[in-house]
Amino acid sequence: MREIISASRIHSDLVRNVEEISGEHLLACNQCGKCSAGCPVASVMDMLPSQVIRMAQLGMEDVLESNTIWICASCLTCVTRCPKGVNLPRMMEALREVSLRSGVTKLDLDSLPPELVRELPQLAIVGGFRKYMK
Ligand code: SF4
Ligand code: SF4
Fold it and tell me: Does residue 38 share a domain with residue 99?
C-alpha cells in the first residue's frame, strides 16, 4: 500500500487526540519491533503492535479498524521491553477511546447468550463494559 506522508497527517486530529488522551509522544517510537516480538497475544492480532503505532504516527485512520487495539490486554510486557520508554497500552487505550467516541460499540449486550452471562465472572462482565463500551 502506497501512502503519502504529509505534515497535515502527522499533525492530524487522530495524532493530537491519541497523544492528548495517552499522554504519550507517538514519534518517540523508532519502530524497533521489540514490543511486537514480545507481545503474548500478537498471534491473534491482525496488525502487530508496532504497526499500530506506525499507522497512528502517520495519522492513518484505518488503524481504528484494527482488532489489535481491542485485543491488547494491557499486560505491560511491551512496556518493559521498549528501549524508548513508550507506554504502548496507553496508546492502545487512547485509540479505543477515539474509536468509541466516534460511536463504535464493540460489545452488544443483547447478543450475549444468557447462559454465557450466567457463567461469566461478574468482574469479566464489568471489565468488558469498561473496555468495549462508551
Ligand atoms: S518497542 Fe517501543 S520503540 Fe520499539 S517498536 Fe515498540 S513502541 Fe516502538
Ligand atoms: S500491553 Fe498489549 S501490546 Fe503490549 S505486550 Fe501486552 S497485549 Fe501486547
Answer: yes
